[in-house]
Specification:
The complex is a heterodimer of chains A (344) and B (290). Chain A is mostly helical. Chain A contains 15 helices and no strands. Classes of the chains: A mainly alpha (344), B mainly alpha (290).
Chain lengths: 344, 290
């Protein structure tokens, strides 16, 4: 009797198949996932004169998505994620201003590569630490980059920034128009590509290992998972994506200043992600959109009340809705379906 | 006296004054973080609140600068107990992230409230005459306000050292920082101890905020602007260590001042470079427990 025929092995094969099927089912694209993309396309036709704002929303979604990879999936709490956004923004900005590199798409690739490289170097050093030490080290990294940029303000333009950057038309065909429509489509396509990539990562075995590290790092060490290497890898990828978002920011605004490295920026993107819900991909979409639209409406009325409101929202979210807006929606739909079952 | 010696003395003097401000404001944060492991990003907001209380008392009520400082410390310390009992308490067992979010939220609300009542323009404070001039030591004159700051710092360090090392409550706090469970099981009421240290720490932060007005001016952004520095001092010094906080404040204060004297363009680069180097070598800070 061959070893593979024992009942235990058959059980194990079946279990493995069941598990594989479960994972595949979870990873299949669901109809509801088309919704944010349909809304984004619809927005193009409904608000044709707000496309500049629209592309800013898309950029922040991409930035929040990159944070979701490390914060939501791998559980790395960082206060310096703006560092990579800033590096991407300055790679494109300095490339255009100092080297005359004005081709937009290759500029984004350059932004991704430079940011990912810095992410790899800093991540390799910093990700051995946890808790307050890690918070401080990530924060200090972002501020040091900002100060370094200010030190060489002859080269970087300092806090006055690099204004009036000009970029070539996209693919040599679509020029930037006054209403930013070409920019919107460009940002949307870039976001779609990045999102597909992130989604693949999250549902891959690598993504599962990251979730494992978030949930119980000791156990992952115990089962022999190379924790540090995995964390550095995901940190590098997230840095690259944040860099792409930064590059897009420079290209669509045609200027960039050192404020992109601000602590406020790191905090804002975290607030967006928390508001939407961490570790669920679409939390970044919902959170960034809600935050940006509210900010757009309310800060015009009174910036002070807006700041108070966002603070209050954070406190309430931590106390009552720890899984964000998407978590609230899930709870509501569960409650709804339960009530239906009871009634019939 | 040779030129470089004068510069060195100036750096030491200004650095020391700056270090005293950092120590007074950060020491409470260090002890409360060491006790409960609570990441309190609203600590800067308490310092800012103290500053505004001082501004209001001196400008609107005509109370002197020194009594105003004392009143601000007591008032803010008392108010902080309400926050600790009402909000912080719920999150002691929560993750770092949730504590960060709650306290950032509180800091945002504090900044907005201060902007609403006092406006975004930096405030100054009227000083008594004896704090306005310079003290001449022959080779160089020093601003008497900075000398006053150093004196206040020295007095507070002695008082805190005595309270920490020589009193019953100090021994209990040290025991709880070392091992909270053990301290609880021998009958120390760590909850109450924490409320007490939180109040004292916030009161000291308020005092620091009041003392800082003359140095940096006071605007609502104070709550976040200097928060990073307080956290850096706490992290570099090691959580819950009085000695560590003092050493970190001295090292960072002198380094930052030296950087600004010798290489003005570099701004805050040095203080963060020192931080990163120290934390890479000693992740738990100078006197922290690994």
């Amino acid at each position: 009797m061959a070893v593979s025929d024992t009942p235990a092995t058959i059980d194990r094969t079946q279990a493995r198949e069941r598990a594989a099927e479960f994972l595949q089912r979870r990873h299949r694209f669901q109809p509801a996932e088309a919704l944010p993309w349909l809304i984004a396309i619809a927005a193009y036709f409904i608000f044709p004169d707000r496309m500049t704002f629209g592309s800013q929303v898309l950029i922040m979604i991409m930035f929040a998505l990159s944070l979701d990879l490390i914060l939501g999936y791998a559980g790395i709490v960082t206060l310096g994620h703006a560092a990579f956004f800033g590096i991407g923004a300055y790679t494109v900005g300095l490339g255009a201003a100092r080297l005359g590199w004005t081709e937009p798409i290759s500029g984004l690739f350059a932004a991704a590569i430079v940011s990912a490289f810095v992410g790899f170097i800093t991540g390799w050093f910093l990700l051995r630490y946890r808790g307050l030490t890690l918070l401080m080290l990530t924060l200090a990294t972002a501020i040091m980059l900002q100060e370094a940029g200010n030190l060489r303000s002859d080269f970087t333009g300092g806090y006055d920034g690099l204004p009036g950057l000009a970029f070539q038309p996209l693919l040599g065909l679509f020029d930037y128009d006054l209403y930013g429509r070409a920019n919107y489509i460009y940002a949307l396509l870039a976001l779609a590509v990045v999102f597909y990539f992130v989604r693949r990562i999250v549902y891959s075995p690598f993504g599962q290992a990251l979730t494992g590290i978030r949930e119980n790092v000791r156990r992952m060490h115990a089962v022999g998972s190379p924790v540090h290497r995995r964390l550095v890898t995901v940190y590098t990828i997230a840095a690259g994506i944040a860099g792409i978002a930064g590059g897009l920011f420079t290209q669509t605004n045609a200027y960039v200043t050192l404020t992109v490295f601000d602590f406020n920026y790191s905090a804002t993107v975290m607030v967006m992600l928390i508001l939407g819900g961490t570790g669920r991909l679409y939390g970044a979409f919902l959170g960034a959109t809600v935050y940006m639209v509210l900010e757009d409406k309310l800060s015009k009325l009174s910036p002070t009340f807006w700041q108070f409101g966002i603070g209050l929202l954070l406190v309430l979210a931590v106390l009552f809705a720890r899984r964000g807006l998407l978590g609230l929606l899930e709870d509501a739909s569960k409650y709804w379906s339960k009530n239906k079952k009871v009634k019939p | 006296m040779p030129h470089f010696a004068i510069i060195a003395v100036s750096i030491l003097f200004d650095g020391l004054a700056y270090a005293m401000f950092l120590f007074i404001t950060s020491v409470g944060l260090s002890v409360t973080m060491g006790l409960m492991g609570f990441v309190n990003l609203a600590h800067g907001a308490f310092a800012m609140a103290g500053g505004y209380v001082v501004v209001t008392l001196t400008r609107n009520f005509g109370i002197g600068f020194i009594p105003s400082l004392a009143i601000a410390a007591v008032v803010v310390g008392a108010v902080s107990v309400v926050f600790e009992r009402g909000l912080y308490r719920r999150l002691y067992k929560a993750t770092d992230l949730e504590q960060v979010l709650l306290t950032i939220g509180l800091a945002f609300m504090a900044i907005a409230t201060a902007t609403y009542f006092y406006g975004p323009i930096p405030k100054s404070v009227p000083l008594p005459l004896w704090l306005q001039g310079d003290i001449n030591l022959g080779f160089r004159s020093f601003p008497s306000y900075r000398a006053f700051l150093i004196a206040v710092g020295a007095v507070l360090i002695s008082v805190l050292w005595y309270a920490f090392e020589r009193t019953n409550i100090g021994a209990k706090i040290r025991a709880a920082v070392d091992n909270r469970r053990m301290a609880e099981s021998v009958g120390i009421n760590v909850d109450l101890l924490f409320t007490l240290t939180f109040a004292v720490g916030s009161g000291l932060a308020a005092l620091g905020g009041g003392l800082a007005i003359q140095l940096f001016g006071l605007s609502p952004n104070f709550a976040v602007l200097y928060l990073v520095l307080f956290l850096v001092v706490v992290a570099v010094g090691g959580l819950g260590s009085l000695k560590g906080t003092l050493l970190a404040a001295l090292v960072l204060g002198v380094f930052d001042t030296a950087g600004k004297y010798l290489l003005a363009d570099a701004g805050g680069f040095f203080i963060y470079a020192v931080t990163v180097v120290v934390l890479l070598i000693k992740p738990a800070g100078f006197y922290g427990r690994e």
